[in-house]
Design goal:
By secondary structure, this protein is α/β, with parallel strands linked by helices. It has 11 helices and 10 strands.
Length: about 350
């Protein structure tokens, strides 16, 4: 396992980090499975674990909290907030009112008195940067969080938040968590240059492209990943974007074979090769998944392999741009772009 400094914090984190989205109902994993995954990840050198309040409605945090009991200080613990937690309209977003309340809820579920990294899961267009950063700065000064970061922010919002922190003399985001994989390279165009400019740590989520780069999805095989059951449109190969992904996967499998690597090693090695990326977040549901991903911990791709990847999916290209989660709201809601 390689270790890297998380932005400008001085904190050393593993190049592969454990993502806990599959803990609980989403991944159909119970306490025994979660504890086994955490045990194996830590044994494999992982020291950063990332979860969120919204994962299985808080169940992920509860299961993770029990799994790390007694060894909390050995782990860089990260969680997130802002996605809806129930039907109440104010139980979401990045307002001071909600963040102060929901952090206490997360700490209770995790069974800890602080988290190392508290992240805004998605940009909240209804709340000013000053409001959010002021609340996060106060939570940091209270000792409940050590650092805070953003997740899936558009590049211009990352810049705006850095400006707001300086303008209002507040602490600033020290990390960004974008979606990044061989099949979704759009962040190379704007986001990663911005995070490098501001010295932000980058935790890349979905480096296996929601299972497309796991080796399980290949031409002629039925697609049976856990996500295909609740997001079938993203795996329907009659959809042109999905067809393009499958074609790319077949070419990438040949690149991996020629390099003597698994497709997973190729995919994770690609993400961690970018100088702007600190860690790739892996989200295993089973121990077999975890071990196949940990096998990429020391993978370093040579230039010729990275060039071959570029020839399959060009730098800065998203093969399924409509699946991105950082689209400006005005592009999604016509009312926001009309007088």
């Amino acid at each position: 396992m390689h270790y890297r400094t998380l932005g400008r914090t001085g904190v050393q984190v593993s190049s592969l980090a454990l993502g806990a989205m599959n803990f609980g109902r989403i991944g159909r994993t119970g306490q025994d499975e979660v504890t086994a995954l955490v045990d194996a990840a830590l044994a494999g050198g992982v020291n950063l674990i990332d979860t969120a309040d919204a994962y299985s409605g808080g169940e992920s945090e509860e299961l993770l909290g029990k799994a790390i009991a007694g060894r909390r200080d050995d782990i860089v613990l990260a969680t997130k907030a802002s996605l809806p937690m129930g039907e109440e309209r104010n139980h979401q977003g990045a307002s001071r009112r909600w963040l102060v309340t929901e952090l206490d809820n997360s700490l209770r579920r995790l069974g800890v008195d602080h988290v190392d990294l508290y992240q805004i899961h998605r940009w909240d267009p209804r709340t000013s940067d000053e409001e959010t950063l002021s609340a996060l700065t106060d939570l940091q000064r209270a000792g409940k969080i050590r650092y805070f970061g953003s997740s899936t922010f558009p590049a211009y919002r990352i810049v705006q938040a850095q400006w707001a922190a300086r303008e209002h003399h507040l602490s600033r985001y020290v990390t960004e968590q974008p979606s990044y994989s061989i099949l979704q390279r759009g962040v190379e165009t704007h986001v990663l240059p911005v995070t490098e400019e501001y010295g932000l740590g980058v935790l890349a989520w979905s480096p296996l492209a929601s299972g497309w780069l796991s080796g399980a999805i290949r031409e002629g095989r039925s697609i049976t990943t856990s996500r295909s059951t609740f997001m079938p449109q993203r795996y329907d190969t009659t959809v042109p974007a999905n067809r393009a992904k499958l074609d790319a996967v077949e070419q990438l499998a040949k690149v991996a074979d020629e390099a003597g690597l698994t497709l997973i090693q190729l995919a994770l090695g690609f993400v961690t090769a970018h100088p702007g990326v600190t860690s790739a977040l892996i989200g295993p549901r089973t121990l077999d998944h975890l071990h196949s991903q940990l096998a990429a911990a020391d993978t370093v791709l040579p230039a010729d392999v990275l060039d071959a990847i570029d020839s399959v999916v060009a730098p800065g290209t998203d093969l399924a741009a409509h699946e991105k989660n950082d689209t400006p709201p005005a592009l999604l809601d016509p009312a926001l772009r009309r007088r």
